Amino acid sequence: MSESASGLLASGERVAAYSADAVRAAEKPLLEEGLPLMRWAAAALADIVAQQLAARPGRVLVLVGAGDNGGDALYAAADLCGVAERVDVVLVRDRVHRAALDAAVAAGARVRSATEVRGELAEYVLVLDGILGIGRLADRRLRGGARALVECVLGLEKQPLVVAVDLPSGLDPDDGTADAAVLAADVTVTFGALKSGLVRGRGPELSGRVHLVDLGLGPYLQLAHPAVTASVEVVRVTAPQRR
User: Fold this and answer.
1) Is the pTM of this model over 0.90?
2) 162-174: average pLDDT
3) I need a surface site. Which of 107, 166, 205, 211 has the fewest CB within 10 A?
């Protein structure tokens, strides 16, 4: 990500944040038009992770859920295979974005079980959290193997860098509520619009430095009323394919 592609907003500037429903509604006409929002988001995500790896090289662990959030993480994993020492992927659900998984594996990412990586967690310098995004869920708490693996990471003596895909998994995208089993991100790369849960409740505590990737939702977000405006620092990023 070049300096010309991003700019840090002043800490006193108020930024509009939107509900998950408003963001999905803004994405819908672009998706119906056939624009590859996921690929744009993943490319920007990979750029930002590559910057982190330039300062702290090593292995990357990608935690992948069943939805589009997991697809974003997998396409980013494919791009990162050229810069990371190694990219390992753990599928925390049986269902997966198949095209994105195929792209990651073709690029050199290794699919491993949670059991395999538990004993090696200390060897990863960066964890890419792509378990949950802004999909509609009645209960956003992590469960089963995903929760157990996150708790193992939280128990490490030395924490890896954590980059959250769109928002930290387990954080409610609207009100910012979360239980204890959430990986606090050093960096959150959020797509299209700032989600209100990143600036409410536990959002500021769990999200780290927020990068907002412009996917061209602006005209459609103007049709929605922001859920909240907040004084926050946000790094604005243009997806590589849109620059």
Assistant:
1) yes
2) 97
3) 205
